[in-house]
Amino acid sequence: MRIAIDAMGGDHGPPAVVPAAVAALRKHANLHVVLVGDEAILTKALSTEQGVPSTRVSIRHATQQVEMDESPSQALRTKKDSSMRVAIDLVKEREADACVSAGNTGALMAKARFVLKMLPGIDRPAICCALPAMQGHSHVLDLGANVDSSPEQLLQFALMGAALTSAVDNKPAPSVALLNVGEEDIKGDGRVKEAAMLISQSNLNYVGFVEGDAVFKGSVDVIVCDGFVGNIALKASEGVGRMFLHFAKEEFLRTPLTRLAAWVSGPVLKAAVHRIDPRRYNGASLLGLRGIVIKSHGSADQVSFAYAIDEAVLEVEKRVPDLISKDLELIFDQRRAV
Amino acid sequence: MRIAIDAMGGDHGPPAVVPAAVAALRKHANLHVVLVGDEAILTKALSTEQGVPSTRVSIRHATQQVEMDESPSQALRTKKDSSMRVAIDLVKEREADACVSAGNTGALMAKARFVLKMLPGIDRPAICCALPAMQGHSHVLDLGANVDSSPEQLLQFALMGAALTSAVDNKPAPSVALLNVGEEDIKGDGRVKEAAMLISQSNLNYVGFVEGDAVFKGSVDVIVCDGFVGNIALKASEGVGRMFLHFAKEEFLRTPLTRLAAWVSGPVLKAAVHRIDPRRYNGASLLGLRGIVIKSHGSADQVSFAYAIDEAVLEVEKRVPDLISKDLELIFDQRRAV
Predict the structure, then answer these.
(1) What is the pLDDT of residues A116-159, one digit of tens each?
(2) Binding-face residues of B in 202-261 toward A, CB within 8 A
(3) Residues A297 and A279 in one domain
(4) What angle do CA B306, B312, B313 make, to 5 degrees?
(5) Domain span holding position B2
(6) What's the pTM value of the predicted model, to 2 decimals?
């Protein structure tokens, strides 16, 4: 399989992306990587890497780069030879089976939607990501692409999230829940109640409403919400994690004695932090497109970006867009039959 | 000042509430507490406490109790002699300056709204709470009372949150932000954009949009959001905290060596956890009522419930409802003048 990588995107660009790509090539024997970006920079970056399987990596030159703070519409209009756009074009032209980018999320969505087009019945990509939980993980969507979702869109998210989870986690009937302010049927706004009705009428394994803390329990496989809610919940959660680490650091640095305690317990704390390390959960899927596009966190380092490539490899192997497309058709057929 | 306490509410009832009330009496020399609930149980609970300032505590008998899972409308209709209702009645009859309850949130809101009534122009109470942050704290509202807020309601939340913060934190012009999926003006749904326009036209110190992680940064004094979003963000944050503590515990209990590390670093970790201890931030205000009603977390223990009483004392001293009422009138006068 061939994966196109926007090698210029993200806060770190080639110094993080190129070593991650080389690591992925070593891990996946059937993988061919196309690094897209400034040829001179990428050639040089590759030359400093040890043991590159050079027959399985190629460079595609692109003259432009999308900035992290550029407006999506401007990027779409003016950056037709950007590393991001060319990587997506390769998927469109079937020269790659998937693409991965750590660049500007809005621009990536706009370009992917414009170039690859959406599956029938889907308006915009939904951002879906596995998040760490006490037991396993949950796939949560939408994490910020759709900020005014209709109940019908929430049903589509449920369907796409279940298809993805079923494929990548090998779960035949993943449980699906709607994020709400309470578990009782009477709780919530009109949108979530109508979505509950739609999803419970589908053939999904719908288990009802869950509250915000369910995201990190792992009791449900797929958690569905509007992108406004999902984005804010995710960022608040990241914020609370950073706050705790900030305070823990301050306390451990307070005196020579606490510094000693830090030295003793450092490996244990690191093991605990490792289990919720956001780097291990890097690689969000833009679902609903006619192709596989994986969004890496902009601040991803080499380790983190490699996880995003792993996600792309897995989705190519499992043919995720085909599965989603089939499930969507089923729903539309049912509707037409009624 | 006199504060009525629903002594039967919450998961623990009198064994948590009575010692908390006694501690509050020792702390605040001008405080008189009215414990509302089963007289026999409360008399007995008080008799086991040491050094009770008995001239400053009284018991008001109530025959009923609102269950934690009872529907608010049912509780409103059938529990007219519940400890919760009688405590609110005491505020209405001016026999108490505020009331505190750890009982069923929905029932507390319904009863408070029915008995005390809302301030002019406010539809439902908004739940506002100070949350810990890297720097100081932020007041966030609404945390779940209003799940379909209009832009106009978000303006009211901003106004009420600013009045509260200004009073209890002694800040003349607290900064106010709207929670959104990005900081740029173009980000977000229609509601948040319209609310931004309304708030920026008010005389509040509006600083723009903030993302979810801002809640725990403390860079803004008041953070405004719809109750659906606020509730889910808060519970997700609690969930991530619990998950991390769960993993840390597992790692520290893994081997004799890691148990030793836990013993060495225990006090330091406790100091870090103390700084974000939800118990220290217990006591949410139901804003917009013609009276002070403080909601304690249902699972509050003695330490935690005492913080909720402190919040009530502070809001009585600062006359928070009067301040809110004055600010609301100003807004309505401006509107009429236009």
Answers:
(1) 999 988 888 999 999 999 999 999 999 999 998 999 999 999 99
(2) 211-217, 225, 227-229, 231-244, 246-248, 250-252, 254, 258, 260-261
(3) no
(4) 90
(5) 1-119+288-319
(6) 0.91
